[in-house]
Specification:
Layout (H helix, E strand, L loop, with lengths): L1 E8 L5 E6 L5 H8 L10 E3 L2 H11 L8 E8 L3
Antiparallel strand pairs: 1-2, 1-4, 3-4
InterPro entries: DUF7683
Protein name: DUF7683 domain-containing protein
Organism: Pseudomonas brassicacearum
């Protein structure tokens, strides 16, 4: 499964940037997101500040900006 953190501008809804989560974090993501079932590859989730902080640790950088909304998408395709 491929996971991508997407950042959108609050005022326009346009994509500001995206960051792909490195492979191999499926179980860690399951805990961060509170998923009870496996992802199907078409889901998208709004991220809380706590979830984003945990994802920043995985990404190895800070991406939070208060003017942005953050979501994570799941995909079966590269």
């Amino acid at each position: 499964m491929l996971y991508t953190v997407e950042a959108f501008y609050n005022n326009t809804g346009l994509l500001a940037f995206e960051e792909r989560v490195p492979e191999g974090y499926d179980e860690v993501l399951r805990g961060i997101m509170g998923w009870a079932t496996d992802q199907q590859g078409w889901e998208g989730y709004d991220l809380t500040r706590y979830q984003l902080e945990s994802l920043e640790t995985i990404l190895g950088k800070s991406i939070y900006d208060p003017v942005l909304l953050f979501q994570m998408s799941c995909s079966c395709h590269a």
